[in-house]
Design brief:
Rossmann fold, Alpha-Beta Plaits, 11 helices, 14 strands, binds adenosine-5'-diphosphate
């Protein structure tokens, strides 16, 4: 049972059936997000991510169940919820005739910036153009204004709906830094995404939704245990290939030349390091951990587990 007062975001058995639809777009969703946590909400198209977010924001009425944000009920206290949160959507429906500056001033009356300096800092880091009408900006440049809008008042709760779409890789990095800084300030962040790499980078926890149901929820750190890691190792002497092959967790050993091997290791690394300690190792390269494989396993898994 998820207790409303214990979590920044608490969702309890939330369900949504659209009026003319026979099936639930969202069914009995329960989850929480705590202060200082980034929760990645993943799922294929049509899984129910937007329905969840639109319900949390009171754009849609839940059919059953409830949710609260900072103790405010999303239906009864919808106005208080909107005042407390930072919301950002990837499709950025904004007032196209306004300039970025006018748009931010307009929204700043409802939710004032934490400080003028912070708003300026965001503008600079995102290289945003506040002078042009929003309708004349490219999608990615318009998205930057939406990001400033969502972050400038340093909200305690952020709800981000596929937020990085349209940003170039450089700006995506700036955006990920902003999320991490908000988390470090103690914000609770709920972020839907289908970009597995970004989820791996910024989230502490992930939930995967399919057909309106949460099928699995994991800590990123635990998922890392399930991933295979790749090492390129060079020994001063001949590589101890037979011993490496016998180590627990070692899935594949490829000998590159007499001295060097490429290893794929699953789970615990201590047996490998214990063996390496007995040899003279001249070089170790680790390739970045890739959780995409683990995510895909859950995306595609046949047997659905209700949690
Ligand atoms: P996601 O954001 O994960 O892509 P959605 O929440 O948009 O998924 O959709 C979940 C399900 O609800 C889908 O089957 C979709 O067709 C249905 N749906 C979404 N919006 C509506 C609507 N306005 N009316 C009826 N069905 C809808």
């Amino acid at each position: 049972m998820i207790n409303v007062m214990d979590h920044a975001i608490a969702i309890s058995k939330l369900s949504k059936k659209y009026r003319r639809s026979g099936t639930f777009a969202l069914h009995n969703l329960s989850l929480y997000v705590d202060a200082g946590e980034v929760y990645g909400f993943l799922g294929p198209n049509g899984a129910g991510k937007s329905t969840t977010i639109r319900t949390l924001l009171n754009f849609l009425q839940p059919t059953n169940g409830s949710a609260s944000i900072l103790g405010h009920d999303i239906v009864k206290d919808a106005v208080a919820v909107r005042q407390e949160i930072g919301y950002l959507s990837g499709d950025g429906a904004v007032y196209l005739k306004m300039t970025g500056q006018q748009y931010l001033d307009y929204l700043g009356e409802l939710q004032p910036p934490a400080s003028k300096a912070y708003k300026q800092e965001l503008t600079k880091r995102l290289q945003a153009n506040l002078k042009k009408p929003l309708g004349e900006l490219s999608r990615g440049n318009r998205q930057k204004i939406s990001i400033i809008q969502a972050f400038m008042h340093q909200p305690r709760v952020m709800i981000l709906d596929e937020p990085s779409s349209g940003l170039d890789p450089l700006m995506q990095e700036v955006f990920y830094e902003l999320i991490t800084e908000a988390k470090d300030r103690g914000a609770a962040i709920f972020m839907s995404s289908h970009i597995l790499g970004e989820v791996q980078k910024v989230c502490n926890r992930v939930g995967i939704i399919r057909d309106g149901k949460l099928i699995i929820e994991r800590n990123i750190a635990d998922m890392a245990q399930e991933a295979t890691q790749t090492f390129d190792i060079t020994f001063k002497e001949a590589a101890p290939v037979t011993m490496l092959k016998q180590l627990s967790g070692v899935q594949k050993v490829t000998q590159n030349d007499v001295h060097s091997v490429t290893l794929h290791v699953h789970g615990e690394l201590s047996p490998l390091f214990a063996l390496l300690a007995k040899h003279t190792v001249t070089k170790v390269d680790t390739r970045a951990l890739d959780l995409e494989e683990v995510f895909m396993h859950y995306y595609q898994a046949e047997g659905k587990q209700d949690v």
